[in-house]
Protein backbone atom coordinates (compact mmCIF):
# COMPACT_ATOMS: atom_id res chain seq x y z
CA UNK A 1 0.00 0.00 0.00
CA UNK A 2 2.85 2.42 0.80
CA UNK A 3 4.32 1.99 -2.68
CA UNK A 4 0.93 2.81 -4.18
CA UNK A 5 0.62 5.96 -2.09
CA UNK A 6 4.15 7.19 -2.81
CA UNK A 7 3.92 6.44 -6.53
CA UNK A 8 0.54 8.13 -6.73
CA UNK A 9 1.85 11.11 -4.80
CA UNK A 10 4.85 11.46 -7.13
CA UNK A 11 2.67 11.13 -10.22
CA UNK A 12 0.13 13.66 -9.00
CA UNK A 13 2.88 16.07 -7.92
CA UNK A 14 4.27 16.01 -11.42
CA UNK A 15 0.82 17.05 -12.65
CA UNK A 16 0.64 19.71 -9.98
CA UNK A 17 -2.26 18.01 -8.14
CA UNK A 18 -2.37 16.02 -4.91
CA UNK A 19 -5.20 13.69 -3.94
CA UNK A 20 -6.82 14.17 -0.50
CA UNK A 21 -5.16 10.94 0.67
CA UNK A 22 -1.72 12.06 -0.50
CA UNK A 23 -2.16 15.47 1.18
CA UNK A 24 -3.16 13.76 4.42
CA UNK A 25 -0.26 11.30 4.17
CA UNK A 26 2.24 14.17 3.80
CA UNK A 27 0.65 15.91 6.78
CA UNK A 28 0.70 12.82 9.00
CA UNK A 29 4.31 11.78 8.34
CA UNK A 30 5.35 15.18 9.72
CA UNK A 31 3.63 14.46 13.03
CA UNK A 32 5.13 12.60 15.98
CA UNK A 33 3.08 10.25 18.19
CA UNK A 34 1.99 13.01 20.57
CA UNK A 35 0.82 15.15 17.67
CA UNK A 36 -1.13 12.22 16.20
CA UNK A 37 -2.84 11.85 19.60
CA UNK A 38 -3.72 15.57 19.54
CA UNK A 39 -5.10 15.21 16.01
CA UNK A 40 -7.30 12.32 17.11
CA UNK A 41 -8.53 14.38 20.09
CA UNK A 42 -9.57 17.15 17.69
CA UNK A 43 -11.38 14.68 15.45
CA UNK A 44 -13.25 13.15 18.40
CA UNK A 45 -14.43 16.66 19.30
CA UNK A 46 -15.39 17.75 15.78
CA UNK A 47 -16.67 14.55 14.15
CA UNK A 48 -19.87 13.14 15.74
CA UNK A 49 -19.63 9.96 13.63
CA UNK A 50 -16.57 8.57 15.44
CA UNK A 51 -15.85 7.38 18.96
CA UNK A 52 -12.68 6.61 20.89
CA UNK A 53 -11.28 3.09 20.56
CA UNK A 54 -9.72 1.76 23.77
CA UNK A 55 -8.13 -1.46 22.50
CA UNK A 56 -5.54 -0.09 20.11
CA UNK A 57 -2.30 0.33 22.04
CA UNK A 58 -1.48 -3.27 22.89
CA UNK A 59 2.19 -2.36 23.09
CA UNK A 60 1.76 -0.09 26.10
CA UNK A 61 4.39 -1.89 28.21
CA UNK A 62 6.66 -3.14 25.44
CA UNK A 63 9.50 -0.81 26.37
CA UNK A 64 9.49 -1.58 30.08
CA UNK A 65 12.44 -3.96 29.84
CA UNK A 66 14.48 -1.12 28.35
CA UNK A 67 13.13 1.69 30.48
CA UNK A 68 14.08 -0.25 33.60
CA UNK A 69 17.67 -0.49 32.40
CA UNK A 70 18.11 3.11 31.23
CA UNK A 71 18.57 6.17 33.37
CA UNK A 72 18.40 9.03 30.92
CA UNK A 73 19.93 12.19 32.33
CA UNK A 74 19.47 14.91 29.74
CA UNK A 75 21.78 17.30 31.58
CA UNK A 76 24.49 14.64 31.57
CA UNK A 77 24.04 13.84 27.89
CA UNK A 78 24.09 17.49 26.91
CA UNK A 79 26.23 19.44 29.32
CA UNK A 80 25.13 23.03 29.89
CA UNK A 81 27.51 25.92 29.40
CA UNK A 82 27.38 26.85 33.09
CA UNK A 83 28.16 23.28 34.17
CA UNK A 84 31.07 23.08 31.72
CA UNK A 85 32.51 26.35 33.06
CA UNK A 86 31.95 25.34 36.69
CA UNK A 87 34.01 22.19 36.12
CA UNK A 88 36.87 24.32 34.80
CA UNK A 89 36.48 26.73 37.73
CA UNK A 90 36.93 23.87 40.20
CA UNK A 91 40.32 23.08 38.63
CA UNK A 92 41.70 26.58 39.19
CA UNK A 93 44.02 27.18 42.15
CA UNK A 94 42.65 30.57 43.21
CA UNK A 95 41.34 32.18 46.39
CA UNK A 96 37.83 31.28 47.52
CA UNK A 97 36.48 34.84 47.14
CA UNK A 98 37.67 35.05 43.55
CA UNK A 99 36.12 31.65 42.88
CA UNK A 100 32.77 32.83 44.27
CA UNK A 101 32.90 35.94 42.08
CA UNK A 102 33.65 33.92 38.95
CA UNK A 103 30.87 31.47 39.79
CA UNK A 104 28.42 34.38 39.86
CA UNK A 105 29.83 35.77 36.61
CA UNK A 106 29.10 32.40 35.02
CA UNK A 107 25.47 32.75 36.12
CA UNK A 108 25.32 36.17 34.44
CA UNK A 109 26.36 34.88 30.99
CA UNK A 110 23.70 34.93 28.28
CA UNK A 111 22.90 32.03 25.96
CA UNK A 112 25.87 32.72 23.66
CA UNK A 113 28.37 33.18 26.49
CA UNK A 114 28.50 36.98 26.64
CA UNK A 115 28.29 39.26 29.70
CA UNK A 116 25.71 41.95 29.00
CA UNK A 117 26.05 43.69 32.38
CA UNK A 118 28.28 46.70 33.02
CA UNK A 119 30.96 46.43 35.70
CA UNK A 120 28.91 48.78 37.85
CA UNK A 121 25.85 46.52 37.57
CA UNK A 122 27.99 43.45 38.35
CA UNK A 123 29.37 45.27 41.40
CA UNK A 124 25.83 45.82 42.70
CA UNK A 125 24.77 42.22 41.97
CA UNK A 126 27.80 40.74 43.79
CA UNK A 127 27.19 42.89 46.83
CA UNK A 128 23.51 41.95 46.92
CA UNK A 129 23.86 38.22 46.15
CA UNK A 130 27.02 37.17 47.99
CA UNK A 131 27.84 40.23 50.14
CA UNK A 132 31.21 40.79 48.50
CA UNK A 133 32.46 44.33 48.00
CA UNK A 134 34.67 44.68 44.97
CA UNK A 135 35.71 47.64 42.81
CA UNK A 136 34.86 47.97 39.12
CA UNK A 137 38.58 47.73 38.30
CA UNK A 138 38.83 44.43 40.18
CA UNK A 139 35.79 43.16 38.29
CA UNK A 140 37.44 44.09 35.00
CA UNK A 141 40.61 42.23 36.01
CA UNK A 142 38.62 39.11 36.88
CA UNK A 143 36.69 39.22 33.59
CA UNK A 144 39.96 39.50 31.65
CA UNK A 145 41.31 36.58 33.69
CA UNK A 146 38.25 34.49 32.77
CA UNK A 147 38.58 35.39 29.11
CA UNK A 148 42.13 34.04 29.15
CA UNK A 149 41.59 30.91 31.26
CA UNK A 150 38.21 29.49 30.23
CA UNK A 151 37.16 27.39 27.27
CA UNK A 152 35.53 27.82 24.75
CA UNK A 153 37.61 30.73 23.49
CA UNK A 154 35.69 34.01 23.43
CA UNK A 155 33.62 33.23 26.50
CA UNK A 156 33.02 36.11 28.99
CA UNK A 157 33.16 38.68 26.15
CA UNK A 158 31.08 41.83 26.31
CA UNK A 159 30.43 42.07 22.56
CA UNK A 160 31.32 40.54 19.19
CA UNK A 161 34.45 42.66 18.72
CA UNK A 162 35.91 41.59 22.04
CA UNK A 163 34.96 37.97 21.38
CA UNK A 164 36.88 37.87 18.10
CA UNK A 165 39.87 39.76 19.49
CA UNK A 166 40.14 37.33 22.42
CA UNK A 167 40.20 34.37 20.03
CA UNK A 168 42.86 36.01 17.85
CA UNK A 169 45.03 36.63 20.91
CA UNK A 170 44.62 33.09 22.23
CA UNK A 171 45.66 31.60 18.89
CA UNK A 172 48.71 33.92 18.71
CA UNK A 173 47.58 35.40 15.42
CA UNK A 174 50.22 37.26 13.42
CA UNK A 175 49.90 41.05 12.88
CA UNK A 176 47.60 41.16 15.89
CA UNK A 177 47.70 44.93 16.38
CA UNK A 178 46.40 45.80 12.92
CA UNK A 179 43.77 43.05 13.09
CA UNK A 180 42.52 44.34 16.44
CA UNK A 181 42.44 47.86 15.01
CA UNK A 182 40.30 46.69 12.08
CA UNK A 183 37.87 44.98 14.44
CA UNK A 184 37.74 47.97 16.79
CA UNK A 185 37.24 50.60 14.09
CA UNK A 186 35.89 48.87 10.99
CA UNK A 187 33.65 46.03 12.12
CA UNK A 188 30.58 47.53 10.43
CA UNK A 189 32.53 47.79 7.16
CA UNK A 190 33.58 44.14 7.58
CA UNK A 191 29.95 43.13 7.96
CA UNK A 192 29.01 45.12 4.83
CA UNK A 193 32.06 43.83 2.90
CA UNK A 194 33.26 47.38 2.23
CA UNK A 195 36.74 46.11 1.37
CA UNK A 196 37.94 49.28 -0.36
CA UNK A 197 37.16 51.43 2.67
CA UNK A 198 38.79 48.95 5.08
CA UNK A 199 41.98 48.70 3.02
CA UNK A 200 42.30 52.45 2.62
CA UNK A 201 41.43 53.21 6.23
CA UNK A 202 43.95 50.71 7.62
CA UNK A 203 46.59 50.91 4.89
CA UNK A 204 46.47 47.19 4.11
CA UNK A 205 46.43 45.18 0.89
CA UNK A 206 43.44 43.31 -0.52
CA UNK A 207 45.35 40.06 -0.07
CA UNK A 208 45.93 40.77 3.64
CA UNK A 209 42.24 41.57 4.13
CA UNK A 210 41.18 38.43 2.24
CA UNK A 211 43.34 36.24 4.52
CA UNK A 212 42.09 38.07 7.61
CA UNK A 213 38.44 37.54 6.64
CA UNK A 214 39.21 33.83 6.10
CA UNK A 215 40.80 33.72 9.56
CA UNK A 216 37.73 35.37 11.09
CA UNK A 217 35.47 32.78 9.45
CA UNK A 218 37.28 30.08 11.47
CA UNK A 219 36.49 31.86 14.75
CA UNK A 220 33.31 31.38 16.75
CA UNK A 221 31.24 34.57 17.15
CA UNK A 222 28.80 32.84 19.55
CA UNK A 223 30.97 30.57 21.74
CA UNK A 224 28.26 29.49 24.17
CA UNK A 225 25.56 28.75 21.60
CA UNK A 226 26.62 25.15 20.92
CA UNK A 227 25.70 24.28 24.52
CA UNK A 228 22.35 26.07 24.25
CA UNK A 229 21.51 24.20 21.03
CA UNK A 230 22.10 20.91 22.80
CA UNK A 231 19.86 21.86 25.72
CA UNK A 232 17.12 23.14 23.43
CA UNK A 233 16.51 19.64 22.05
CA UNK A 234 12.89 18.84 22.74
CA UNK A 235 12.17 15.42 24.20
CA UNK A 236 8.43 16.05 24.48
CA UNK A 237 7.50 13.41 21.91
CA UNK A 238 6.72 9.83 22.84
CA UNK A 239 9.20 7.54 21.09
CA UNK A 240 8.17 5.94 17.79
CA UNK A 241 9.69 2.50 18.40
CA UNK A 242 11.65 0.38 20.83
CA UNK A 243 14.93 -1.15 19.68
CA UNK A 244 16.53 -3.99 21.66
CA UNK A 245 18.48 -7.23 21.26
CA UNK A 246 16.95 -10.66 21.81
CA UNK A 247 18.71 -13.60 23.51
CA UNK A 248 20.46 -14.49 20.24
CA UNK A 249 21.82 -10.97 19.79
CA UNK A 250 19.39 -10.17 16.98
CA UNK A 251 18.18 -6.59 16.85
CA UNK A 252 14.43 -6.17 17.28
CA UNK A 253 12.37 -3.12 16.31
CA UNK A 254 8.93 -2.88 17.88
CA UNK A 255 6.66 0.04 16.96
CA UNK A 256 5.18 2.24 19.63
CA UNK A 257 1.85 3.34 18.19
CA UNK A 258 0.01 6.52 19.22
CA UNK A 259 -1.83 5.97 22.48
CA UNK A 260 -5.22 7.05 21.10
CA UNK A 261 -7.40 5.44 18.45
CA UNK A 262 -10.92 5.86 17.13
CA UNK A 263 -13.54 3.95 15.16
CA UNK A 264 -16.71 4.72 13.24
CA UNK A 265 -19.72 4.88 15.54
CA UNK A 266 -21.92 1.79 15.14
CA UNK A 267 -24.98 4.05 15.50
CA UNK A 268 -24.01 6.16 12.45
CA UNK A 269 -23.02 3.06 10.50
CA UNK A 270 -26.55 1.75 10.87
CA UNK A 271 -28.10 5.14 10.29
CA UNK A 272 -26.42 5.74 6.94
CA UNK A 273 -27.54 2.35 5.62
CA UNK A 274 -31.14 3.59 5.72
CA UNK A 275 -30.62 6.33 3.14
CA UNK A 276 -34.33 6.75 2.40
CA UNK A 277 -35.07 7.73 5.99
CA UNK A 278 -32.59 10.61 5.82
CA UNK A 279 -32.80 13.98 4.13
CA UNK A 280 -30.17 14.54 1.39
CA UNK A 281 -28.39 17.11 3.56
CA UNK A 282 -28.17 14.81 6.61
CA UNK A 283 -27.09 11.84 4.49
CA UNK A 284 -24.38 13.91 2.79
CA UNK A 285 -23.15 15.25 6.15
CA UNK A 286 -22.89 11.78 7.75
CA UNK A 287 -21.31 10.21 4.67
CA UNK A 288 -18.71 12.96 4.41
CA UNK A 289 -17.77 12.63 8.07
CA UNK A 290 -17.52 8.83 7.86
CA UNK A 291 -15.44 9.04 4.66
CA UNK A 292 -13.10 11.54 6.32
CA UNK A 293 -12.68 9.26 9.34
CA UNK A 294 -12.03 6.17 7.18
CA UNK A 295 -9.44 8.07 5.16
CA UNK A 296 -7.66 9.16 8.36
CA UNK A 297 -7.67 5.63 9.81
CA UNK A 298 -6.22 4.25 6.58
CA UNK A 299 -3.59 6.97 6.29
CA UNK A 300 -2.45 6.63 9.92
CA UNK A 301 -1.89 2.93 9.24
CA UNK A 302 0.15 3.82 6.15
CA UNK A 303 2.16 6.32 8.18
CA UNK A 304 2.93 3.64 10.77
CA UNK A 305 3.96 1.18 8.07
CA UNK A 306 6.29 3.74 6.48
CA UNK A 307 7.80 4.72 9.86
CA UNK A 308 8.49 1.09 10.69
CA UNK A 309 10.20 0.47 7.35
CA UNK A 310 12.40 3.55 7.75
CA UNK A 311 13.34 2.85 11.38
CA UNK A 312 14.11 -0.81 10.64
CA UNK A 313 16.40 0.17 7.79
CA UNK A 314 18.21 2.84 9.84
CA UNK A 315 18.71 0.41 12.71
CA UNK A 316 19.91 -2.34 10.38
CA UNK A 317 22.56 -0.03 8.91
CA UNK A 318 23.63 1.35 12.30
CA UNK A 319 23.38 -1.83 14.40
CA UNK A 320 27.10 -1.66 15.33
CA UNK A 321 26.56 1.88 16.58
CA UNK A 322 23.71 0.70 18.83
CA UNK A 323 25.71 -2.29 20.06
CA UNK A 324 29.17 -0.77 20.43
CA UNK A 325 28.89 3.03 20.64
CA UNK A 326 29.65 6.22 18.71
CA UNK A 327 32.93 5.06 17.23
CA UNK A 328 30.97 2.67 15.01
CA UNK A 329 28.49 5.15 13.55
CA UNK A 330 28.60 4.70 9.78
CA UNK A 331 28.32 7.61 7.35
CA UNK A 332 24.63 7.83 6.45
CA UNK A 333 22.57 10.46 4.63
CA UNK A 334 18.83 10.95 4.29
CA UNK A 335 19.23 10.32 0.58
CA UNK A 336 20.67 6.84 1.27
CA UNK A 337 17.52 5.81 3.13
CA UNK A 338 15.23 7.49 0.59
CA UNK A 339 16.79 5.54 -2.29
CA UNK A 340 16.47 2.19 -0.51
CA UNK A 341 12.86 2.83 0.57
CA UNK A 342 11.91 4.30 -2.81
CA UNK A 343 10.65 7.71 -1.68
CA UNK A 344 11.81 11.31 -1.96
CA UNK A 345 14.48 12.55 0.46
CA UNK A 346 12.01 15.12 1.85
CA UNK A 347 9.81 12.24 3.04
CA UNK A 348 12.68 10.77 5.09
CA UNK A 349 13.48 14.25 6.41
CA UNK A 350 9.88 14.63 7.63
CA UNK A 351 9.89 11.19 9.25
CA UNK A 352 13.16 11.76 11.13
CA UNK A 353 12.54 15.34 12.29
CA UNK A 354 11.80 15.59 16.03
CA UNK A 355 11.20 11.82 16.28
CA UNK A 356 12.77 9.51 18.84
CA UNK A 357 13.33 5.80 19.44
CA UNK A 358 14.09 3.93 22.66
CA UNK A 359 17.39 2.01 22.43
CA UNK A 360 19.85 0.32 24.82
CA UNK A 361 21.79 3.62 24.59
CA UNK A 362 18.77 5.63 25.77
CA UNK A 363 16.13 7.72 24.01
CA UNK A 364 17.69 8.87 20.73
CA UNK A 365 16.68 11.39 18.10
CA UNK A 366 16.50 9.67 14.71
CA UNK A 367 18.76 12.42 13.35
CA UNK A 368 21.56 11.05 15.58
CA UNK A 369 21.83 8.03 13.27
CA UNK A 370 22.83 10.22 10.32
CA UNK A 371 26.37 11.44 9.92
CA UNK A 372 28.11 13.02 6.96
CA UNK A 373 31.39 11.80 5.54
CA UNK A 374 34.36 13.96 6.43
CA UNK A 375 36.89 14.83 3.73
CA UNK A 376 39.26 11.95 4.44
CA UNK A 377 40.65 8.84 2.80
CA UNK A 378 38.75 6.37 5.00
CA UNK A 379 35.34 8.06 4.56
CA UNK A 380 34.79 8.16 8.32
CA UNK A 381 31.70 9.73 9.86
CA UNK A 382 31.85 12.90 11.96
CA UNK A 383 31.15 10.82 15.07
CA UNK A 384 34.06 8.49 14.28
CA UNK A 385 36.30 11.55 13.87
CA UNK A 386 35.28 12.73 17.34
CA UNK A 387 36.28 9.33 18.71
CA UNK A 388 39.68 9.59 17.00
CA UNK A 389 40.20 13.05 18.52
CA UNK A 390 39.28 11.62 21.92
CA UNK A 391 41.85 8.84 21.50
CA UNK A 392 44.56 11.31 20.42
CA UNK A 393 43.96 13.41 23.54
CA UNK A 394 43.92 10.36 25.83
CA UNK A 395 47.33 9.34 24.45
CA UNK A 396 48.91 12.82 24.55
CA UNK A 397 51.80 13.83 26.80
CA UNK A 398 49.98 15.10 29.89
CA UNK A 399 52.77 17.56 30.65
CA UNK A 400 52.46 19.07 27.19
CA UNK A 401 48.82 18.75 26.04
CA UNK A 402 48.15 19.12 22.34
CA UNK A 403 46.61 22.33 21.00
CA UNK A 404 43.71 22.15 18.54
CA UNK A 405 46.14 23.16 15.78
CA UNK A 406 48.47 20.27 16.66
CA UNK A 407 45.52 17.85 16.66
CA UNK A 408 44.54 19.23 13.25
CA UNK A 409 48.03 18.44 11.95
CA UNK A 410 47.95 14.88 13.38
CA UNK A 411 44.58 14.27 11.72
CA UNK A 412 45.93 15.60 8.41
CA UNK A 413 48.69 12.97 8.52
CA UNK A 414 45.93 10.36 8.93
CA UNK A 415 44.22 11.73 5.82
CA UNK A 416 41.53 13.61 7.76
CA UNK A 417 41.28 17.28 6.81
CA UNK A 418 39.09 19.41 9.06
CA UNK A 419 39.29 22.98 10.37
CA UNK A 420 40.73 23.85 13.78
CA UNK A 421 37.39 25.37 14.71
CA UNK A 422 35.69 22.04 13.97
CA UNK A 423 38.16 20.27 16.27
CA UNK A 424 37.31 22.75 19.05
CA UNK A 425 33.60 22.08 18.49
CA UNK A 426 34.10 18.30 18.62
CA UNK A 427 36.22 18.68 21.77
CA UNK A 428 33.38 20.56 23.45
CA UNK A 429 30.90 17.87 22.42
CA UNK A 430 33.26 15.31 24.02
CA UNK A 431 33.39 17.51 27.16
CA UNK A 432 37.20 17.82 26.85
CA UNK A 433 38.68 21.14 28.04
CA UNK A 434 41.25 23.16 26.12
CA UNK A 435 44.96 22.30 26.24
CA UNK A 436 45.61 24.97 28.86
CA UNK A 437 42.89 23.53 31.10
CA UNK A 438 44.15 19.98 30.57
CA UNK A 439 47.58 21.17 31.69
CA UNK A 440 46.04 22.63 34.85
CA UNK A 441 44.15 19.40 35.43
CA UNK A 442 47.45 17.52 35.45
What do these coordinates show?
This protein is mostly helical and 442 residues long. It folds into three domains: 2-59 and 237-369, no CATH class; 81-229, no CATH class; 382-441, Arc Repressor Mutant, subunit A (Orthogonal Bundle). The chain is built from 23 helices and six strands. The protein has helices spanning 2-14, 20-30, 33-46, 64-67, 74-77, 81-89, 96-108, 119-130, 136-149, 160-170, 176-192, 195-202, 206-217, 225-231, 266-273, 280-317, 319-324, 334-341, 345-352, 382-394, 404-413, 420-429, 435-441; strands at 50-53, 241-245, 251-255, 261-264, 356-359, 362-365. The strands form two sheets. The chain has a four-stranded mixed beta sheet, covered by helices on one side. Strands 1-4 form a two-stranded antiparallel sheet. Helix 2 packs across helix 16 (280-317), helix 11 runs antiparallel to helix 12 (195-202) and helix 18 crosses helix 19. It is elongated and about 90 Å long.
Write the layout of secondary structure elements.
Elements: H1 2-14, H2 20-30, H3 33-46, E1 50-53, H4 64-67, H5 74-77, H6 81-89, H7 96-108, H8 119-130, H9 136-149, H10 160-170, H11 176-192, H12 195-202, H13 206-217, H14 225-231, E2 241-245, E3 251-255, E4 261-264, H15 266-273, H16 280-317, H17 319-324, H18 334-341, H19 345-352, E5 356-359, E6 362-365, H20 382-394, H21 404-413, H22 420-429, H23 435-441
Parallel strand pairs: 2-5
Antiparallel strand pairs: 1-4, 2-3, 5-6
